[in-house]
Amino acid sequence: MREGYRVAVVGVGAVGEELLRVLSTTSLPIREIKVLARTSRVVEVDGIKYTVRETKPEEFEGVDIALFAGTERASELFAKEAIKRGAIVIDNSATFRLEPDVPLVVPEVNPEDLEWHKGLIANPNCSTIQMVVALKPLYERSRIKRIFAATYQAVSGTGRDAITELRQQSILQLIYSEDVKMTYSYPYRIAFNLIPQIGSFNEMGYTSEEMKMVNETHKILHDPDIKITATCVRVPVFNCHSEAVYIETEEKITADEAREILRNAPGVKVIDEPSPRSGRSYPMPIDADGKDEVFVGRIREDPFVETGLHLWIVADNLRKGAALNAVQIAEEMHKRGLLKR
User: Which of 56, 102, 188, 205 has the most CB atoms lying inside 10 A of its own CB?
Assistant: First the structure.
């Protein structure tokens, strides 16, 4: 048996670059990393140069693990071609997430679903991942009946061009003090603004991003009866998503009990000292940037609903919300003996 896996990274946008960063420090034994994209070129990530090859079906010959960074077109064209050639595909796009025979996995939450994979595992949406990492330990204490989520999502979730757009708009707005008309990534200016739309609207007025949180949470927690509603907002933050989440449980969980449960939960870091004399003690995007954990704070009981609980959840959407979760899936599969070499 040869040493390590042959890994392909498909896509070198913001998530693709983060995949290469995470792979550089993973415990997964890797023999070779092949980088694929629409065009051949050389890219540099943290001082390491990677030769990028054009994505073609034959490029997946001999590949053990194919990590698709999230472009739906690439997943549609090449995911099944990679599987046909013997690769295990871990896909960050929305293409296969709700397919009934495709596991949708967050390793801290439902790793057992990896056992029934058929060569393809879907990586959930970034906003869903951080929410379920925080909620699953509470769900295990008492089933969650209802979830209200409001998300405040950074522009990095749209990609590298959106990061550039926010930076340029912010500079122009500060210099000229007038409305900036330059918009490419969003329907309206994002600098110094909030846009309460992520994705397209459906007939009920909810966006596709909001419905992803509903449908994916149902699938990951194996509980389609949870009543879930979400409002997803794009905010002028470069990186890291934040969420205000309210839950109602079947049995009461006190704020102190919730803090203790979450302090002992995998992948979670609690920053929450509610004393008015303690100063700031809650997570913010600047705390989560570049970090692996899901940060939770502002944990408090609802004074009007006996089983109501509020949480503030923050995570790096490019890492735990995308690249890190995908690599953790591969690590978990390796640990369970589900990968072939």
Answer: 102
- Give the Cα separation of 341 and 99 in Å (integer): 27
d(CA 241, CA 149): 12
pTM of the model: 0.96
> How many Cβ atoms from other residues are within 10 Å of residue 195's Cβ?
17
Per-residue pLDDT reduced to its tens digit, 238-279 = 999 999 999 999 999 999 999 999 999 999 999 998 766 666
**What is the residue-wise DSSP string for 311-329?**
EEEEE-TTIIIIIHHHHHH
56 Cβ partners below 8 Å, 6+ apart? none
Number of domains in the chain: 2
Q: State which residues form the domain around 20.
A: 5-123+322-335
Closest by CA position to 95, among listed 67, 74, 66: 74
The residues assigned a catalytic role are 126, 241
Structural domain contains residue 341:
no
For the segment 83-113, what is each residue's pLDDT rounded down to a tens digit? 999 999 999 999 999 999 999 999 999 999 9
Instruction: Tell me: do 166 and 291 sit in the same domain.
Output: yes
